[in-house]
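Final report, Chapter 2: Outcomes

The project's central promise was a pipeline that accepts a single protein chain and returns its three-dimensional structure in a standardized token representation, suitable for archiving and comparison. That pipeline is now operational. To close this chapter, we reproduce one record exactly as it appears in the project archive, with the input sequence first and the structure output second.
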Amino acid sequence: MTETTRRDEIAAGLARVEAEIAEACRAAGRDRKELTLIAVTKTYPASDVRLLAGLGVTDVGENRDQEASAKARECADLNLSWHFVGQLQTNKARSVVRYADVVHSVDRPRLAEALGREAAGAGRRVTCLVQIALDDDPDRGGVRPAGAAALAEAIAGTEGLVLGGVMAVAPLGADPGRAFAKLREIAQEVREAHPGADVISAGMSGDMSQAIANGATHLRVGTALLGRRKPFVR
């Protein structure tokens, strides 16, 4: 596939996604400007990131440090905000804070401590979101709703970090609208204690409209923008 053909393919995907966002915003009585579209580029090459940037996309998401760090270096000349959206081990904190502007998947105090320590050491301030578990699948990460307030407090009190808000993934096989309504309630509770923490990261390729209807501010979209993923080759 030539670069021109791939650009046209991505442009068409972006147009479809933007049309869906616009329709969902109309239905919810919201302004499109309230939403940030994060292009999740995991398993896609850095050349796709460049094409997205050329089409006006400013926010890029990755979920593997090994892949993300290399891609961020290769695209360092682009004016992009990098979002780390995957599960994160504490031993990867030093690497992640070098390029990530936002970490969406903070689900335990120990991880917040590690990120804060490394961010402060690097002279950076990294925005962190509390990942909320909306189901009982431990492999998907997240703190139980009852623990959200305490974790938000821990992030807010950690040097080098900024509490941005909350994030969640809709449970598999469940109604995403109900899940995101619950996330919105938790987000409101966090915001009451921390007025600046107004981010609700929710919604992916298959459930953007439900997320927008329930107050999402950040959408994490990959497949709908870039096509079906290929297995990541190390």
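Archive annotation: The beta strands are 36-40, 59-62, 81-84, 102-106, 126-131, 161-167, 199-201, 218-221.
This record, like all others produced under the grant, will remain available to the consortium after the project formally closes.
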